[in-house]
Amino acid sequence: MSTDDFDERFDDLAAIAYRAAFRILGDREEARDVTQEALAKAYARWSKVAGYAEPWVARVAGNQALGVARKRGRSLRSCAVDPPAWLDPADAIGDRHRLAAALASLSPRQRDTVLLRFVADLSEADVARVLGCSAGTVKSQTHRALRRLRPLLIDSQLVIDPRSP
Amino acid sequence: MFSHLDDANPFRPDVGFRAATVRRGRRLRRRRRIVAGASAVGCSLAVVAGALSLSLDRQLDEVDRIEVAGVVDSHDAGLNDPTVFLVAGIDGPRTDNGIEIAGAMADVILLLRADPSTGRLSVLSIPRDLMVEGSSYTGRANGAFQEGGADGLVAAVEEATGVGIDHYVEIGFEGFVELADAADHLAVRIEAPLRDVGSGLALRPAECHRLTGTEALALARSRHLEVEQDGRWVSDSTSDLGRITRQQMMVQAALASLVDLELSSEDVSSLTGLLAEHATVDAGLSDAELFKWGRWLISRGEDNLTPYPVPVEDVRTAEWSMVLVPAEGWDQTMSDFDNGAAPSIDTASDADRHVVASPDGAGPVIGLCR
After folding, report:
1. What's the rounded Cα separation, in Å, for the pair B353 and B285?
2. What is the predicted pLDDT for the residue at B103?
3. Which of B27, B85, B165, B351 qualifies as a cystine partner to B112, CB 3.0-4.6 A?
4. Pick from A130, A64, A142: nearest CA to A100
């Protein structure tokens, strides 16, 4: 597939990447940098990923954003288990910390599934396509991940509905 | 669902952003070697791996590849020839938003010799503080990467050891943490409470403790380790040499766990995905070879893993605060390794070989699980 196609889809891909990154980072500049890197990687591999570029870019951007968040706040795992007192449950900043920390506590496959389903708002079919597995596997990974996540997100506004399309 | 976290005024890319993105993408694309003959790769994948799944193929193709001067062309090597890999654990990201980071150091430098004809994997861990003196670089081994990147590191290690390097694999420490977590199998024996207040490390005694990725990294990097003795905390007096020994022990534990893994196909996919995200390899390492060697590595079993002791001694010079230099037995060890001969130098028993002595020399504090 030629990169003319990349040009045509650029704005949509950027929007997907930016939304995933901003939901995790809450910082425009960081989210913009993550967006650029994710799209540059897509461009470098365009002939391979063009067929499923939207979920692919969402995955790369989401994981990259988590990497940035991890560098910011050392021990995200301990934050999820024992959040600092200053995290205001009603505060979006607090929700982002909780989200990043909770995602960090998942296995890589579970993390990808939650990132793509609920942070990037992709369908089960799209998630299955980019992860190279069946929709059934996406369902079971989602179920296991949510069982683990719910107690960690209980004091936040982050309500995950597994029935979302 | 998470819409309350969205940007109320989201970013819209302009012409400049788009152009910069494409430029960055072209640079990334130039790094990736185009393996000649896609159909030939497809055939070799089928022969070597037996119908490699599409998702694994896709993930392996996403591993970053770079041209590395000095590594041999993979097509020259026979399928069963011994192959030497230089594996570098890099402290600090290779790039940050498209900008290469100066200052990243190679904190772990491993030579792995894989011999399919005997089924043995030989391991030589080059201390990062080894002084290397070569035609293009003189200094500590870990600084060779900082000065000359992968090319510089390969050249420095080849000159210091005399061992020819066939392939290069680089993993950032973040990747090491994620791989260790995903494998969930990196285990050590801890004989006394350990801590490093600076890094947040805190370990209790255990016969065999499974380290999280974060614990593993903190232990490997610890510079101010303390051991609890008789109710009080005592600094680890082995200092730099102790840290080097600890790192080598952990590398040994990591390899021992890797070669003994039992992985489901889903685990393989997850680990391959992590590799794609965090590893960089030389352009001569095709998808087929990457898969072949990865599968070979994790099917070795600990009995087929041979670590080679590295004879070094600590010197202090006017210019360098602490460096290591080759000691008696160095040349023999390198020759043994390169030829696949058993190590000539006597070592301690398997369980006690890589330990960190307690500060008063009373006995080992941390080591491999028995």
Report:
1. 33
2. 55
3. B85
4. A64
- CA dihedral for B164, B169, B173, B177, sign (positive or negative): negative
Residue keyed to tokens 């730099």: B240
CB-CB neighbors (< 8 A) of B32 in chain A? 44-45
Distance of CA B21 to the CA centre of its chain: 31
**Alpha carbon B323 to its chain's center:** 21
Cβ neighbours for B315, distance < 8 A, ≥ 6 positions apart? B322, B323, B324, B325
Residues B167 and B156: beta-carbon distance below 8 Å: no
pLDDT tens-digit profile of B220-247?
A: 777 778 888 888 888 876 555 566 667 6
Nearest residue to B11 via CA among A118, A15, A121: A15
Do the beta carbons of residue B139 and residue B319 sit within 8 Å?
Answer: no
Beta bridge partners of B167: B85
Residue of B nearest to A131 (CA): B55
Which residues of chain B are within 8 Å of residue A33 when distances are taken between CB atoms?
97
Nearest-angstrom CA–CA distance, A57 and A126: 12
To which H or E segment does residue B26 belong? helix B15-31
ipTM for the predicted complex comes to 0.81
- Distance (Å, whole) CA B57 – CA A46: 15
DSSP code at position B352:
G
The Cα–Cα gap between B129 and B139 comes to 9
Q: What value does the mean pLDDT take over residues B281-305? A: 80
For residue B360, CA distances in Å to B132, B206, B234 come to: 32, 21, 9
Q: Where are the alpha helices (DSSP H) in chain A?
A: 3-25, 28-44, 46-49, 53-72, 76-81, 92-104, 108-114, 124-131, 135-149
State whether A119 and B266 contact (CB < 8 Å): no
Compute the distance between CA of residue B326 and CA of residue B332 in angstroms, rounded to an integer. 11
Residues of B in Cβ contact (< 8 Å) with A96? 5
Nearest to A92 among B5, B18, B182 (CB): B5
Copy the structure tokens of residue B7: 């940007």
Q: What is the residue whose two structure tokens read 């590398």?
A: B251
Contact indicator for A15, A31 with CB cutoff of 8 Å: no
Tokens of B174: 């973040």
Average pLDDT, chain B: 73
